[in-house]
Specification:
Chain B: It comes from Ruegeria aquimaris. The complex is a heterodimer of chains A (426) and B (251). With 426 residues, chain A is of the alpha/beta class. Chain A contains nine helices and 20 strands. Classes of the chains: A alpha/beta (426), B alpha/beta (251).
């Protein structure tokens, strides 16, 4: 079907500024992704899936200017013993990174695997992304697969002793970065992946994760204080039997952030938890879009998203659980809540369930409200000052999402960031 | 200790006068009880004294040790030594009971210019006091009042009172929702805190709480005023004859 003229024009305008990288073994995947993108067209405001978030600034040929992050401030996870992989404006920086060596895992740059004929990543790069367009197109992910300039392929065959930490640095005020990572967790292997840092003025990041039977991947991400950034991220995850995927994202400020999670539970008894805590102030716009497909028996999925919004900030949640025929004993849970600290902020939520099996337990809830005045008075009547009481209740509101992080020290790090955010606002 | 003069209060949202000239003085070391029919303004009095929003004082004053309570924020009143045990203690999901107690205690100490209590000292105190109220370690760890039974919530109020060591304690229908054993436990907790420097104002519908917490003075409140004041025998009179006789006599 031909695209509407407006969409066609916008798509070609964007494509005219991009060039397919010289890419050996990912070339075919990139060309296929480009074809998909041409067929879908870039997102527009009339697309139902972009009803609550304006995609305009994500599809202009040039990235809108964004101030770089003030240097010298302590970064997330600084105290964590981890293997650091650093990207500056979307380009791997070997000087700033640790040697890509760690027992139980092989890490290569996407660029380096491109020249190999046979490589496991060939069967993953662009594959989960391609599967992720049914039933909803995700053109910015196809764009990513086609044009990603860098990224890493992480092959987890054992249990590495420390987390793999992807660190993004922002150096140029007009940087337009596209990164694509692929991760394969082999049967019984387990890894923790961290992501943090302001990446670029505009950041399009895609991660494809394939977890084999009995494998485990924990993901903790912090999207930080680089307020003018625009980011669109996709995580495509496929889970085998008895495997576990737990992902948590902290988002603090940012004029535009859209985080999509597309999860497929394809093996029996797999577990997928995706969670997010976000705090936004002023012209902040944050969108969590989640699509979880249950396609096996006895799987569990949880979506826990909490947003604190003030001074006219906007939060969006679009979350769906699809239970396919035969996916019996599915246990699906979804909660999205916002705490609106004033009347100007808004929360737009679209929770969805679509169920084709008859023996399932699925629940979803979405609420939006102000701080609990009764609880506030209770705290104050015990001597806790107003500001402190408000902060305590705000953190308590976010706690259900933060509790999804299994590693206590990482969770503490996230909480201290949130406390910092609250402290800066009096 | 607590001096209330000619206190008039109306609801902010609707033009409804609730308190119509309350006069009351609670001396240090004494337990005063307020009884009265539903809607007489007992709970309103407790909320106004502790600083809850939604009430407007139109006339009169309330002082704690000579300091004007009505000008202070709720947290300032707490730091000055006022404590209200809630009729309906509030559940706060996500805030651990211990964190709550410690935050409150240290906030008050800080407001009074005292040093914060060390974690070890705090733990020691809270354990001893919780034990006396039969509050187990699990209740201390759980979020404030979440999933607590009615009795547990009231015991938790008394634990807060014991930890914060206020000068003036107001107990708003602390006996409501309690079985006999729980009431005894709560009363013991209150009695343990009775001393020469501390005043109590016990709001209740029933004599039975006053069997366990012996009052020095009993007031009857009706239609926003204290209409009669007497000794403990007044509570017995209410128990035996209801309020009708007293109200008829006053009118």
């Amino acid at each position: 079907m031909a695209l509407p003229a407006q969409k066609q024009t916008a798509t070609e305008a964007l494509l005219s500024s991009l060039h397919l990288p010289e890419a050996g073994c990912t070339r075919a995947a990139r060309e296929a992704a480009l074809a998909r993108l041409r067929e879908m067209g870039v997102p527009g405001r009339r697309d139902e899936y972009w009803k609550y978030t304006r995609p305009d600034s994500l599809i202009t040929p040039d990235a809108p200017r964004a101030a770089t992050f003030a240097a010298g401030e302590p970064m997330m996870f600084d105290a964590v013993d981890r293997l650091k992989i650093v990207f500056v404006d979307g380009v791997f920086d070997p000087e700033a990174s640790d040697p890509l060596e760690l027992e139980g895992v092989q890490i290569e740059r996407i660029e380096d695997i491109c020249c190999k004929d046979i490589h496991w990543a060939k069967d993953l790069y662009g594959v989960l992304e391609a599967r992720g367009h049914t039933p909803v197109p995700r053109p910015l992910a196809a764009l990513n697969t086609a044009f990603a300039a860098d990224g890493v392929a992480i092959h987890v065959t054992g249990t590495p002793s420390k987390p793999i930490s992807l660190i993004y640095q922002h150096a140029s005020e007009t940087s337009d970065a596209i990164l694509h990572h692929v991760i394969r967790v082999e049967s019984g292997a387990a890894v923790t992946v961290l992501e943090n840092g302001p990446a670029a003025s505009r950041f399009n990041k895609c991660m494809e994760i394939d977890i084999a039977d009995g494998g485990t991947l924990h993901h903790v991400r912090a999207q930080g204080r680089d307020h003018e950034r625009r980011a669109v991220t996709h995580m495509f995850t496929r889970l085998g039997e008895g495997s576990v995927y737990k992902s948590f994202t902290l988002t603090v400020n940012g004029v535009l952030t859209r985080n999509e999670q597309v999860v497929e539970l394809t093996g029996d008894d797999a577990v997928a938890h995706v969670a997010g805590a976000c705090v936004g102030d002023g012209d902040f716009h944050h969108d969590d879009t989640v699509f979880i497909t249950h396609d096996a028996v006895g799987c569990e999925s949880r979506q826990v998203f909490k947003k604190v919004l003030r001074n006219g900030a906007t939060g969006v949640f679009q979350g769906k659980i699809l239970v396919k025929p035969g996916a019996q004993k599915t246990d699906g849970y979804q909660i999205s809540q916002s705490l609106l600290l004033d009347d100007d902020s808004q929360f737009l939520a679209k929770p969805e369930l679509e169920i084709y099996a008859d023996d399932v337990a699925c629940s979803h809830g979405s609420t939006s409200g102000a701080i609990d005045e009764t609880a506030l008075f209770y705290l104050r009547s015990r001597g806790v000052p107003l500001k402190e009481a408000t902060d305590l209740l705000t953190l308590a509101f976010l706690a259900e999402a933060v509790d999804e992080i299994e590693d206590k020290s990482l969770a503490d790090d996230i909480v201290s960031r949130l406390e910092g955010w609250l402290a800066r606002r009096s | 200790m607590l001096t209330i003069n000619n206190l008039h209060v109306k609801l902010e949202e609707e033009d409804k006068q609730i308190l119509k000239g309350v006069d009351l003085t609670v001396e240090a070391g004494k337990v005063h009880a307020i009884m009265g029919p539903n809607g007489s303004g007992k709970s309103t009095l407790s909320y106004v004294l502790s600083g809850r929003d939604g009430y407007e004082v139109t006339e009169g004053s309330a002082q704690l040790e000579g300091v004007d309570l009505l000008e202070m924020e709720p947290e300032e009143r707490a730091a000055a030594g006022l404590f209200l045990a809630f009729q309906y203690p509030v559940e706060i999901p996500g805030v651990g009971n211990m964190t709550f107690l410690r935050t409150a205690l240290n906030a008050q100490r800080k407001a009074r210019g005292e040093e914060e209590l060390s974690a070890a000292d705090f733990l020691k105190q809270v354990r001893t006091k919780a034990k006396a109220l039969k509050i187990d370690a699990d209740m201390l760890k759980r979020p404030v009042n979440v999933g607590f039974s009615g009795g547990e919530k009231k015991r938790n109020e008394i634990l807060q009172m014991a930890m914060l060591e206020p000068k003036m304690c107001i107990l708003d229908e602390t006996d409501s929702g309690l079985d006999v054993d729980a009431m005894k436990l709560v009363a013991e907790g209150v009695n343990a805190l009775r001393d020469a420097g501390r005043g109590f104002l016990v709001i209740t519908h029933y004599q039975r709480l006053l069997d366990h917490i012996k009052p020095d003075v009993v007031h009857i409140m009706a239609d926003g005023r204290i209409v009669k004041t007497g000794g403990p025998e007044l509570a017995l009179e209410v128990e035996n004859n209801g309020y009708a006789d007293i109200l008829a006599e006053v009118n």
